[in-house]
Specification:
heterodimer; A: alpha/beta; Rossmann fold; 2 domains; 36% helix; B: Rossmann fold; 7-stranded mixed beta sheet; 12 strands; globular
Chain lengths: 277, 298
């Protein structure tokens, strides 16, 4: 059995009406992702990568480079215009974009986890922190109240939120704590694959460090594969083993994180690394 | 405009049951669909009735489509046959359905239209219970978009309703819903039995009588067919409970009129400011009283 968990081939997303010149007239060499002929936006084009069990893959790039678009498609928040993705779940293989909507929702609820930059997207602020985690557990057909309580409490403790605050509304939490609750919620069903979209953006440095530590610990403990989207080179350096660099919807460079940071090949990556250091 | 215009005589009157035959046929078709998909909210063309939406127009349209000259009708509102709404609806049916008999006795009725209660007396296979529904969709409290609610119903995705119950247990140590208790019919669709209290939910389960629920304003009909499983949503380790009528000493409160200790009670405050309780189902209460007085005489 291969250790592969996700295999993405030729993933593309173009917003708007497409014309035959969309691809050839956009990209880093044209310094735009908007087609000058028809005005379509090439959010992502021909994204290829493989992800293995327990691996952390980083996707880095500036705003509008297509890194979030890629993750959105894989989490079924958006449909690609072309390309395929295969999810390897134990012995089963799923052609992700060939599944029907119900199967996609079930995969998203039970096999994937997502942590958004904005906790308002990932959490329901009408209900308690414990209720948010219970929601995920109930979705995966757990119907035992005491067990739900225990598991939700354990998850919160694991993500360093006190059990005493379990029944409070996340609105009363600090930004860092909201992010921790989001991580606990994403981990509730013990998903083999976790997406992290700019999770540390907007948090202060010490909280950022604590959250990154937590993510690393979880990866060691549970062996969860993760895709980390960020524009922060520090996050990539700390977390990711391999990295994709994206610009104007294209992957311009990919490889081991150390290699990319120490010996960048593409002019954009060189500028990026130089500006950060 | 022709001020002297008059409808041709044969068109001027209303047909039997106020609704025209086409309207009744459409409602009957939707009833059949609702029965064949237990718990599914069948959309139908709810007609304008000569009363406001919210006064039981959904239930009334069901009743008028089902009723025939040989039927005996009972109308209940808040458990009582004498409340304003029940009296008006009964009079309307008598007016528009000549020859239909009415009764207050549950066992004599073939068709029962009700709001708020299922009669205390066990219904039979020969009877149909029509309930007036204010809120047909249980998911409306967690999802405002009807399009998304339909998908959730289709996939039987009711986890968010359970989250609501979870929050209730966390906050109050028990489920506090007094009515609108989400109930799963035949293992798939969850209905909102909004007209009846939690007390009556177990009586939907394997009911010998056909239960039809009609929402006039929301334009939906759904059904609990006879002998169908109706299971309230619960957690595995927290059992479903009905209302508990006990005083401070843990004694079951009895009805002040008939002394029943098994019926659903209404709380009343009398002129002296004392809290008393009496049966919510007035027909049941009267029958109990008659039995008691008959026994005393004998």
């Amino acid at each position: 059995m291969s250790n592969k968990i996700l295999s993405v081939r030729g993933l593309s997303r173009i917003h708007g009406e497409q014309c035959p010149l969309c691809i050839s007239s956009t990209g880093p060499e044209h310094d735009t992702n908007m087609c000058p002929h028809c005005g379509s936006v090439v959010a992502a084009h021909d994204v290829n990568f493989d992800l293995y069990r327990g691996e952390i893959l980083g996707i880095i790039g500036e705003s509008g480079s297509g890194k979030s678009s890629t993750v959105k498609m894989l989490y079924f928040d958006d449909m690609p215009t072309a390309g395929s993705a295969t999810f390897y779940d134990g012995d089963a293989q799923h052609d992700m974009f060939a599944l029907n909507a119900a199967q996609q929702r079930s995969m998203r609820n039970k096999r994937f986890g997502m942590v958004y930059q904005n906790p308002h997207l990932g959490l329901n602020f009408q209900i308690s922190a414990g209720g948010n985690i219970a929601e995920r557990l109930l979705m995966s057909d757990l119907r035992h109240y005491e067990e739900i309580r225990t598991r939700a409490g354990d998850l919160l403790v694991r993500t360093e939120v006190s059990r005493a605050r379990m029944d409070q509304n996340p609105r009363t939490f600090s930004g860092g704590m909201q992010q921790r609750v989001q991580i606990a919620k994403a981990l509730a069903t013990r998903p083999p694959l976790l997406f992290l979209d700019e999770v540390t953006t907007g948090l202060d440095l010490s909280v950022q460090a604590a959250i990154l530590d937590l993510i690393l610990e979880i990866q060691h403990e549970l062996g969860t594969a993760m895709i980390v989207v960020t524009h922060d080179l520090g996050v990539i350096r700390l977390l990711a083993g391999r990295t994709l660099v994206m610009k104007h919807g294209r992957v311009i460079e990919s490889g081991l994180t150390d290699q990319i940071l120490e010996d960048p090949q593409h002019a954009y990556t060189q500028r990026l690394v130089a500006s950060a250091l | 405009m022709n001020a002297h215009y008059e409808l041709p005589l044969e068109d001027a009157g209303y047909s039997f049951g106020f609704l025209d035959e086409y309207a009744k046929k459409e409602v009957r078709r939707c009833i059949l669909k609702a029965i064949s998909i237990p718990g599914y909210q069948t959309p139908y063309a709810s007609r304008e009735m000569p009363m406001g939406r919210g006064f039981g127009t959904g239930g009334l349209q069901l009743t008028l489509s089902l009723i025939g000259a040989d039927d005996t009708l009972k109308v209940i509102d808040q458990g009582s046959d004498d409340s304003v709404n029940a009296v008006n609806l009964r009079q309307f049916v008598q007016l528009t359905c000549p020859g239909v008999a009415v009764t207050e006795k549950t066992q004599e009725a073939t068709l029962i239209q009700s709001r708020h209660r299922i009669p205390e007396k066990m219904l039979t296979e020969q009877q149909i219970l029509v309930l007036q529904v204010p809120y047909p969709d249980a998911l409306v409290v967690v999802e405002p978009s009807e399009a998304r609610r339909k998908v959730m119903h289709g996939e039987a995705d009711y986890s968010r309703l359970l989250v609501k119950l979870y929050e209730d247990v966390v906050r109050f140590d028990e489920i506090t819903l007094s009515h609108r208790y989400p109930t799963r019919i035949n293992g798939h669709y969850v209905i909102d039995p909004s007209p009846i209290p939690r007390w009556d939910v177990p009586r939907l389960h394997h009911s010998p009588a056909l239960v039809l629920l009609g929402a006039g304003r929301e334009k939906k009909i759904y059904a609990v067919p006879p002998y169908t499983v109706a299971a309230p949503l619960v957690f595995d380790d927290i059992a479903f409970r009905v209302e508990d009528f006990r005083d401070a000493n843990g004694q079951r409160i009895a009805c002040r009129c008939c002394g029943s200790i098994v019926s659903f009670l209404d709380e009343l405050i009398d002129d002296a400011g004392r809290v008393t309780h009496q049966c919510s189902d007035s027909a049941y209460c009267e029958e109990q009283q008659e039995t008691i007085s008959a026994r005393k005489q004998a």
